[in-house]
Structure formats: structure tokens, C-alpha cells
Design a protein that fits this description.
The chain has about 130 residues and is mainly α. The protein has one domain. Helix content is about 95%, strand content about 0%. The chain contains two helices and no strands. The two termini are about 35 Å apart. About 0% of the residues are buried.
């Protein structure tokens, strides 16, 4: 009978240690997840600044394009067409960059949502 009690006490101690280990892992995971959330928010901020800069650059490029389309004295039609092609290509490249930045912002915003959900679950687990 004593062996059963010793085995039972050993099992309880093992479970208690396992709970402490799980709690320690959850705390570490919570810290790591919160750090990741900060990094993602910083990245979103950086992307938003980049988006603002690219939008401003696009507006300038469109203004330049409108000037290129206008008549300029001593400029041949070939030169005009070449300048229009170059300006159009530049505008399209900026628009592609803007689309890519918007997609990245959306991706990171989704990541923020998932990370916040994970943090809430970890906090709930640690309360119990």
C-alpha cells in the first residue's frame, strides 16, 4: 500500500512540475508574441510612411507627365514620344510599388489581428 501512495505522490509532483513548465513556456511565448506585435506595428508604420512618399512621388510624376505632353519649342515629335514613354513607364513603376506596399500593409494588419488574438489566448491561459 505504501508503494501506491509513493507512486501517487510522485505522479502529483510530476504533474505539478509539468504545469510550472507549461506556464513558463506560455510566459515566454507571451513575451515573444508581444515583441513580435511591436515589430509588426513598427513595420506597418514604416510601410505607411513609404506609401505616403510614393503617393507624393506619383503626383509629381503625373505633373511632369502633363508637362511632357505639352508642346515645347525646338523639340521633335520623336523626342516628345520618347519622353512620354519614359514618363509613362516611371508612373507605372510607382503605381506597382504603391500596390505592393498596400498589399504588405494589409498582410501585416492581418498579422496584427492574429497576434493580438494569440496574446489574448495566452493571457487567458495564464489567468487559470
Amino acid at each position: 500500500m505504501n508503494k501506491v501512495y509513493i507512486l501517487f505522490i510522485g505522479l502529483i509532483l510530476l504533474m505539478a512540475c509539468d504545469d510550472k513548465e507549461k506556464r513558463a513556456r506560455a510566459l515566454k511565448d507571451l513575451d515573444d508574441t508581444q515583441q513580435r506585435l511591436l515589430e509588426v506595428r513598427d513595420e506597418i508604420h514604416r510601410l505607411e510612411q513609404s506609401l505616403t512618399n510614393h503617393i507624393a512621388e506619383l503626383e509629381v510624376a503625373k505633373d511632369d507627365f502633363n508637362q511632357v505632353k505639352q508642346f515645347q519649342f525646338l523639340r521633335s515629335e520623336t523626342q516628345r514620344e520618347q519622353q512620354i514613354r519614359k514618363a509613362t513607364t516611371y508612373i507605372l513603376n510607382i503605381e506597382k510599388k504603391i500596390d505592393a506596399i498596400k498589399n504588405n500593409i494589409t498582410y501585416y494588419q492581418d498579422s496584427v489581428y492574429r497576434t493580438e488574438t494569440k496574446i489574448e489566448k495566452l493571457k487567458e491561459y495564464l489567468k487559470n
